[in-house]
Design goal:
By secondary structure, the chain is an all-alpha fold. It contains 18 helices and no strands. The longest helix is centred in the last third of the chain and has 33 residues, at 352-384. The protein is globular and about 60 Å long. Residues 413-417 have low confidence and may be disordered.
Length: 417
C-alpha cells in the first residue's frame, strides 16, 4: 500500500483550521440582529465593529507572514487559534459597544488574520512543488466555505436557543482545532524527514533562520510592491473582490434577505449553499490556474460576479426562492475563485520567497474593500431603508475589476512552477 505523503496531512489540518477560523470570522452576520435586540446597539455601530475585524485580519496578513518566517508555522497557528478562542469566551461577558469593537473587531480580526490570508500560500509554498496550484485552490476554498457552511446551524441555535449557544458551539470548535494543530501540524517537510511533494531530489533544505524585525520585513515588502504596476492592479482588483464578497455578501446578505421577509435560517442556508459551491469553484480554479493564463481567469470571474450582483435585487424583489438558489449556486462558484490566479500572478511577478508577504499586502487591500462594504452597507441601509444601492454599486465595481486584470503583464507559465 502506497504511503500517504505527509504534505496531505498538513493540508488536511490546515484546511480544517481555515474552516474553523472562517466560521468564527463570518458568523458576525448571524449576530447583527440579536446584538441589536439585546443590547440596543445601532446597526452602524455593530457594522463598524465587524468592519474593524475585516480590516485588521487583512492588514495583519503580511505581518503574519513575517512572524511565520521567524517563529514558525505551527507556533503561529497555535497562537492565532488561541486568540480566537479567548475572544469567543469574552463575548459571553461583553456589555458595551467598545467591548464589541475590542473583541469582534480587534481580537477576532487579528486572530483570524493568519488563517484567512497568507496561510494557504505558506503551506503550498513549503509543502508542495507538484500540484501547488491545486493545493492553493483547496485551501483558499476553505476560507469561504468555512465562513459560510455552518451558518444555518448557527442561525438555528440563535432562533431556538440564544446567540450565546451559537457562540458556545464555535468556541468548542476552536478548542478542538487547537488540539489537532498541536498534534499533527508541522512547519516544514524536514520536521518529519521528508521533502515537499513532487520535489525531484531528496535533499531536505534547511528552513531559513530569520532574525530580522518582522515589522521591517513587512513594510519593506510593501514599499517594494508600491513601485510595481502589477501590485497596484492586483491590489485594486482584490479590493473589489473583498468589497463584493465578505464585506457585502458575507456581512449583509442575511439581513438583506430578512428585510424581504425571508426567514433567518433560510437566508443563512442560502449563504451556506454559496460556501458548498465555493469549495467546488475555488478548487477547480486552483486546477485551472496551473494550466491557463491567470489574467483571463480573473477577467471572467469578476465579470460574472458583477452580473450576478446586479441580478440579486431583481431576484429578491421577485420573491422567488428558485432565483435565489440559482444566484447562491452561481455566486458560490465564483466566491473566492479569484484567489488561486491572484496568488499565481503574485508568485510570477515577485518570486516564490516573496509571494506570501506580497499576497499578504494584496489581501490587505481585499480587506479594506471588505471593511468599506461592511460599514457602508449598514449606512446605506439606514439612509434608504434598503440594501439595493449597495449591491448595485458592488456589481458595477466588479465589472470595473474585470478590466483591471487585463492590464497585468502576460504571465510566463514557467515562472509559476
Amino acid at each position: 500500500m502506497r504511503k500517504i505523503h505527509y504534505s496531505w496531512i498538513v493540508l488536511t489540518v490546515t484546511f480544517t483550521s481555515i474552516i474553523v477560523a472562517g466560521i468564527i470570522r463570518s458568523s458576525s452576520g448571524i449576530f447583527i440582529d440579536p446584538f441589536e435586540t439585546e443590547f440596543g446597539w445601532g446597526r452602524p455601530t455593530i457594522s463598524l465593529a465587524f468592519a474593524v475585524g475585516l480590516l485588521l485580519y487583512g492588514f495583519s496578513g503580511p505581518f503574519m507572514a513575517a512572524f511565520v518566517d521567524i517563529f514558525g508555522l505551527k507556533k503561529m497557528m497555535l497562537y492565532s487559534m488561541s486568540i480566537l478562542a479567548i475572544g469567543l469566551s469574552l463575548t459571553f461577558v461583553m456589555r458595551s459597544e467598545w467591548q464589541l469593537i475590542l473583541i469582534w473587531g480587534v481580537m477576532l480580526g487579528i486572530g483570524s488574520g493568519l488563517f484567512l490570508t497568507v496561510l494557504s500560500t505558506q503551506v503550498a509554498n513549503r509543502w508542495f512543488v507538484k500540484r501547488r496550484g491545486l493545493a492553493v485552490g483547496i485551501l483558499t476554498a476553505a476560507t469561504a466555505t468555512g465562513q459560510l457552511v455552518l451558518l444555518p446551524v448557527l442561525a438555528s441555535f440563535v432562533e431556538n436557543y440564544s446567540w450565546r449557544a451559537a457562540i458556545a458551539l464555535i468556541f468548542v470548535l476552536s478548542i478542538a482545532m487547537l488540539i489537532l494543530i498541536a498534534i499533527f501540524m508541522k512547519s516544514w517537510p524536514k520536521d518529519v524527514g521528508t521533502t515537499p511533494l513532487g520535489q525531484e531530489d531528496r535533499v531536505m533544505e534547511e528552513p531559513p533562520v530569520m532574525n530580522r524585525n518582522p515589522f521591517k520585513m513587512a513594510i519593506n515588502s510593501l514599499l517594494e510592491g508600491l513601485k510595481v504596476k502589477e501590485f497596484w492592479l492586483l491590489a485594486g482588483s482584490f479590493f473589489i473582490c473583498g468589497l463584493s464578497t465578505s464585506g457585502l455578501i458575507g456581512t449583509h446578505f442575511i439581513s438583506y434577505c430578512v428585510s424581504f421577509g425571508i426567514p433567518l435560517v433560510t437566508a443563512a442556508s442560502l449563504l451556506s449553499l454559496m460556501g458548498v459551491f465555493d469549495l467546488i469553484g475555488t478548487t477547480v480554479s486552483g486546477w485551472l490556474s496551473d494550466r491557463f493564463d491567470n489574467r483571463w481567469l480573473l477577467f471572467w470571474y469578476y465579470l460574472l460576479r458583477g452580473i450576478s450582483l446586479l441580478f440579486l435585487p431583481f431576484a429578491l424583489a421577485q420573491g422567488s426562492y428558485i432565483w435565489l438558489v440559482i444566484f447562491s449556486i452561481f455566486y458560490g462558484l465564483d466566491w473566492i475563485a479569484t484567489v488561486p490566479p491572484t496568488i499565481g500572478l503574485a508568485r510570477q511577478r515577485f518570486g516564490l520567497q516573496k509571494s506570501a508577504m506580497m499576497y499578504g499586502w494584496i489581501t490587505a487591500a481585499h480587506q479594506v474593500g471588505a471593511g468599506v462594504a461592511a460599514f457602508s452597507g449598514g449606512v446605506v441601509y439606514k439612509i434608504f431603508d434598503s440594501y439595493m444601492w449597495a449591491f448595485l454599486f458592488a456589481g458595477g465595481f466588479c465589472l470595473l475589476g474585470s478590466l483591471f486584470v487585463l492590464l497585468i503583464k502576460k504571465q510566463n507559465p514557467k515562472e509559476l512552477v
